[in-house]
Amino acid sequence: MATTAAKWVAPPTRPPLIETLVSGVDRYNPSNVGILEDYLYHQIRSQEYDCLANLAILKLYQFNPDLYNPDVVINILIKALTSAPFPDFSLCISLLDERPASATSTAAAANPDEPDPLPQLLPVLTQLHGLLQQCRFPRFWALYRSAAVEPLRDNYTVECVGFEDAVRDVAVRAVKAAFTSISRERLGSYLDLSGTELNAYIEKLGWTIDASTGVVSVPPNPDNQIESTVVQENIQLPQLTKIIAHAAQTSLPVVPAV
Amino acid sequence: MAQQRKLWEADLDEDLQDVDLNLAIGTYGQNGLYDDAQSRVDEATLLALQQQMAQQAAFAQIPDVVKRFIAHFHQAVLENNLAEITVAYESGWNRLTEKFYAKTEWPEAEVIAPLVNDDQIFLILYRELYYRHVYSRLTPDIDDRFHSYENSCELFNYLLSKSHSDGPVPLELPEQWLWDIIDEFIYQFQSFCVWRSKVKSKTDEEIAMLAEGSQVWSSYSVLNVLYSLIQKSKINEHLVALQEGKSPEEIAEIVGEYGTRPLYKLLGYFSIIGLLRVHSLLGDFTLALKVMENVELNQKSPFTRVTACHVTTYYYVGFCYIMLRRYPDAIRTFVSILNFILRMRQYHTRSYQYDQINKTADRMYALFAICNALSPTRVDDNISNIVKERYGEQFAKMSRGEEGIPAFEELFLYACPKFITANPPPYEDPEALQGYIDEPPVEPAQRHLQLFLAEVRAQAPVPTLRSFLKLYTSLDASKLANFLDADEEDMVQQLMVMKQASRSISRVDNEKGLLGGQWISTSDLDFVIKEVRLLVPRGGCSCLRTLTDRRHLLQNMVHIAESTVGRRYAGWFIRNTEHAQRVLDTLRNSPLPIPPKSTEAGKAPAADASAAPPAQGPGRTGGKQVAWGSTKAA
């Protein structure tokens, strides 16, 4: 867990070319948007995730509204969705400048067969994100499987390899931190799995099920090991250097008492 | 400072009247020549002449003291005399503004041009001040906005131009002014964006100008300036070299002829801070912190001498941390700078930026209250006392979950940066513009507020849960659900939310870059759920139980642990020892009372004696008050 932030800033899977774009001024060059978009689709296919590179795409869209491609935006949001409880989803939305209705309508007028799907899907994605943020995993699955989310499932998440497992990872992270043991049924409802699939998943996690009770024990980790402590004050020498130095400099010569 | 001001006034009287002013008047005297030729001049010349006469009339109206000031200011800039420039910039300009231009513009650059021998560089600098005055005291119209942009471009082009075959321009300006140049550049950009987005109040002429001038104050042009200054000055390489402990000679080699000059070095550094600010205003909080990669936030850095820059840096860094949900980092950032401001208070009351710094500080107290409500931790006493004083009411509401949402909203809108949108309304397309008026997009501040509130709402159940868990060392989740009149499953989900809310990414050691960090626990109250199946008595009945029956036998035991902090004495003693030492120092350094002497003792010592007490007197009593005042507060 210690490397969470470092990995987020620069995932080890990020190719050097992308690193140059993300960290340099070339990130503002509109002609590089294609490279970043290709990289996004690579992430979609190979279960990688690079938030900063995706934010760089949104940045280019922000500055160059002509480049805007709703499919790319939706895919970025889908990727960001499963990073909960980290705020990636909100960070992405922050960069989507409110697109005035007129801009959308002119785009629609130019291309009436393909209306911008984002205004339709954004509320759905936001709702899904809210449920993950609030750890309402059973509700998430219910909504995700519902007819209302069909357009998102059929057109987007189906292409995103490992999307459902990524959602399960969100649940696993939450469970791992809060539980030392959890019933198999409850875990199943969070992961939307049951029967042998669930058993296999638990095994893959390296967790164990007590066959007689059906309780899954969660291995100890820093977040589910709690202990009461009393933090005692610990004074370090550097805290006192100023005082000691000052005293040494200004102390008066000792005058023997007469 | 008082002494410097006197110097300047003396200089004004001695030097100026004869040197530059005569030159200037000489040029103007020649204008009379044209009078004879009037019959022969064509239309264009006539127009030029009229303009010149108007300028002449305007020139005549400039008070003499202002003329002298400008000529003197010009001389100081020509000589790269930093001390004199500083006095003119920080004192002269402001005093003359109060006296003559509190409600009107300063004379236009064209009008005063003869005073400075038409020195283009000085005129650009003059216009920089001229427009800044318009923005801060008057209402800039569209021409002011366009021209101030052009002037900024001219200034930066001059500094960055590749045509200087002889390298960097030989100009020196005070640190404070360099900071103000960048600060003002971004302020005017932000002000323009806000003004631009208000379509309804625009006249047809303004709409036409905006349609045509879509490149004016564009985000790209602003970023371009900042990045160019950063690259030209090699400031990032400079900062890295400093961190690696390289020697001044090595650093000079690395940063090259531009980076070694204070003007470029500082403009480069301030541009990094400028980027932090621009990216924050545009809602890119990640990138804002990423551009700060090489900047170390501490008060020992050689770049922290400009207080306004220092305060701005911490404000935006802290705010970005909030938007990245890294509340402990935000809290640490705010505590550090707010303490700095408290300490500096006694020295800074005289600064003309004092008001601005105080306003920013007040917004940071509000942000601090927000962070502390979302991530309750033991924090600095000084700061939290002030927060209680100023935002106690809101803080109490925010600490109560859902019902505190309006308080979050109030403080967020008060304390957030003035967000902008990257793109103008479609001024070039009348139809689209009408659509924009009919259906205006949500204001950027509202968008960011809603995103933030979504986060707050997700955490809303936490304070209540916390207050219950605090009472137990272990508790059945169903019992907790009963207390709160909730479903047990909901309760378990809320507990998971609480767990997540009590963890955060935070910079622990000195990680490189502001985005680095580790996953830490931020709460003194921790818990874990142990779901167990209760042992049912062995016997026939157990195998008959249905699944639903069996569920009832599952029990979620919540175990709670709290870490407490033993009383802390050291900080208190260290603080007070330091105060005592300071008081003692002041006492020792004060002159012994001088016994009344005969007036024949000579003028010099008498002057000394009379100068010394006023300088030290207020300092001493001030120090004493602070020392005892904060002792009481602690």
Automatic annotation (TrEMBL), chain A:
<keyword id="KW-0648">Protein biosynthesis</keyword>
<dbReference type="InterPro" id="IPR009374">
    <property type="entry name" value="eIF3k"/>
</dbReference>
<dbReference type="InterPro" id="IPR033464">
    <property type="entry name" value="CSN8_PSD8_EIF3K"/>
</dbReference>
<dbReference type="GO" id="GO:0005852">
    <property type="term" value="C:eukaryotic translation initiation factor 3 complex"/>
</dbReference>
<dbReference type="GO" id="GO:0016282">
    <property type="term" value="C:eukaryotic 43S preinitiation complex"/>
</dbReference>
<dbReference type="GO" id="GO:0003723">
    <property type="term" value="F:RNA binding"/>
</dbReference>
<keyword id="KW-0963">Cytoplasm</keyword>
<dbReference type="InterPro" id="IPR016020">
    <property type="entry name" value="Transl_init_fac_sub12_N_euk"/>
</dbReference>
<dbReference type="GO" id="GO:0006446">
    <property type="term" value="P:regulation of translational initiation"/>
</dbReference>
<dbReference type="InterPro" id="IPR016024">
    <property type="entry name" value="ARM-type_fold"/>
</dbReference>
<dbReference type="InterPro" id="IPR000717">
    <property type="entry name" value="PCI_dom"/>
</dbReference>
<dbReference type="GO" id="GO:0033290">
    <property type="term" value="C:eukaryotic 48S preinitiation complex"/>
</dbReference>
<dbReference type="GO" id="GO:0003743">
    <property type="term" value="F:translation initiation factor activity"/>
</dbReference>
<comment type="similarity">
    <text>Belongs to the eIF-3 subunit K family.</text>
</comment>
<dbReference type="Pfam" id="PF10075">
    <property type="entry name" value="CSN8_PSD8_EIF3K"/>
</dbReference>
<dbReference type="GO" id="GO:0001732">
    <property type="term" value="P:formation of cytoplasmic translation initiation complex"/>
</dbReference>
<dbReference type="InterPro" id="IPR036390">
    <property type="entry name" value="WH_DNA-bd_sf"/>
</dbReference>
<protein>
    <recommendedName>
        <fullName>Eukaryotic translation initiation factor 3 subunit K</fullName>
    </recommendedName>
</protein>
<dbReference type="GO" id="GO:0043022">
    <property type="term" value="F:ribosome binding"/>
</dbReference>
<comment type="function">
    <text>Component of the eukaryotic translation initiation factor 3 (eIF-3) complex, which is involved in protein synthesis of a specialized repertoire of mRNAs and, together with other initiation factors, stimulates binding of mRNA and methionyl-tRNAi to the 40S ribosome. The eIF-3 complex specifically targets and initiates translation of a subset of mRNAs involved in cell proliferation.</text>
</comment>
<keyword id="KW-0396">Initiation factor</keyword>
<comment type="subunit">
    <text>Component of the eukaryotic translation initiation factor 3 (eIF-3) complex.</text>
</comment>
Automatic annotation (TrEMBL), chain B:
<dbReference type="InterPro" id="IPR000717">
    <property type="entry name" value="PCI_dom"/>
</dbReference>
<comment type="subunit">
    <text>Component of the eukaryotic translation initiation factor 3 (eIF-3) complex.</text>
</comment>
<dbReference type="GO" id="GO:0001732">
    <property type="term" value="P:formation of cytoplasmic translation initiation complex"/>
</dbReference>
<keyword id="KW-0396">Initiation factor</keyword>
<comment type="function">
    <text>Component of the eukaryotic translation initiation factor 3 (eIF-3) complex, which is involved in protein synthesis of a specialized repertoire of mRNAs and, together with other initiation factors, stimulates binding of mRNA and methionyl-tRNAi to the 40S ribosome. The eIF-3 complex specifically targets and initiates translation of a subset of mRNAs involved in cell proliferation.</text>
</comment>
<comment type="similarity">
    <text>Belongs to the eIF-3 subunit L family.</text>
</comment>
<feature type="domain" description="PCI">
    <location>
        <begin position="333"/>
        <end position="543"/>
    </location>
</feature>
<keyword id="KW-0648">Protein biosynthesis</keyword>
<dbReference type="GO" id="GO:0033290">
    <property type="term" value="C:eukaryotic 48S preinitiation complex"/>
</dbReference>
<dbReference type="Pfam" id="PF10255">
    <property type="entry name" value="Paf67"/>
</dbReference>
<feature type="region of interest" description="Disordered">
    <location>
        <begin position="588"/>
        <end position="634"/>
    </location>
</feature>
<keyword id="KW-0963">Cytoplasm</keyword>
<feature type="compositionally biased region" description="Low complexity">
    <location>
        <begin position="601"/>
        <end position="618"/>
    </location>
</feature>
<dbReference type="InterPro" id="IPR019382">
    <property type="entry name" value="eIF3l"/>
</dbReference>
<dbReference type="GO" id="GO:0016282">
    <property type="term" value="C:eukaryotic 43S preinitiation complex"/>
</dbReference>
<dbReference type="GO" id="GO:0005852">
    <property type="term" value="C:eukaryotic translation initiation factor 3 complex"/>
</dbReference>
<protein>
    <recommendedName>
        <fullName>Eukaryotic translation initiation factor 3 subunit L</fullName>
    </recommendedName>
</protein>
<dbReference type="GO" id="GO:0003743">
    <property type="term" value="F:translation initiation factor activity"/>
</dbReference>
